[in-house]
Amino acid sequence: MDLGLAGKAALVAAGTSGLGLGTAVALAREGxxxxxxxxxxxxxxxxxxxxxxxxxxxxxASAVDVTDESAVAAWVDATVAELGGVQVVVTNGAxxxxxxxxxxxxxxxxxxxxxSLLPHIGLALATLPHLRAAGRGRLLMIASExxxxxxxxxxxxxxxxxxxxxxxxxxxxxxxSAGVTVNVLAPGYHRTPAVERQLGADPENRLAxxxxxxxxxxxxxxxxxxxxxxxxxxDQAGFVTGxxxxxxxxxxxxxx
Length: 256
What we know:
By secondary structure, the protein is α/β, with parallel strands linked by helices. Helices cover 46% and strands 14% of the residues. It has helices at 18-29, 41-54, 69-83, 106-116, 118-134, 155-160, 162-176, 193-199, 203-211, 222-233; strands at residues 9-12, 33-38, 59-63, 88-91, 137-142, 180-187, 244-247. The chain has a seven-stranded parallel β-sheet, sandwiched between helices. The longest helix has 17 residues, at 118-134. It is globular. The two termini are 30 Å apart. The model has no long low-confidence stretch (mean pLDDT 94).
């Protein structure tokens, strides 16, 4: 299936590993020109090589901290100047630390907003004029399955990521007339570095805990997630907007 992404310019925040890298690779395979950012120069270089090998489009890699508003604005401006515009934007960033809601103080909640909510909003606001100008824009925001079902071990995520859904849904009517769609991707457990760290010193037993409630009986991988993101960025998803799409192997089975 041709998703119509060949030659399109895509920005992928925090694209050096995990779901961000999986998304960047999937977009590159569809022929998109991909601009990705990250903080670690070595990981950024490795990710850029991986994305470059996946497709025929251009790859731009920039050292950017997505919590730095001015750095994000400069990244967007430089990318637009280099690629002539932007049609796909994928917001992404670090998740807050795990733990129940009562394990954290107010300062921790403020920090979680700064790392896991505001960077998404900042990148979206910086790129909206360019998405409008494109006449065919796609804004994808990577959140977590916690926006659909709170998970006791992820108290901070349960609280702060829900705001991302409110922001995205508030944009839908405002951007619809410009041909811009806005969707939230809500991943469940995938085999990413963040999940690997949580598996700890006893990975097999911990892995069994993680997959116990996943009907498909496994963790997702970055390619699974990237394929869904690429579809939503493509032409065939032009009538899909304002949605929160779970990518969780069926673990959430509510009727909402």
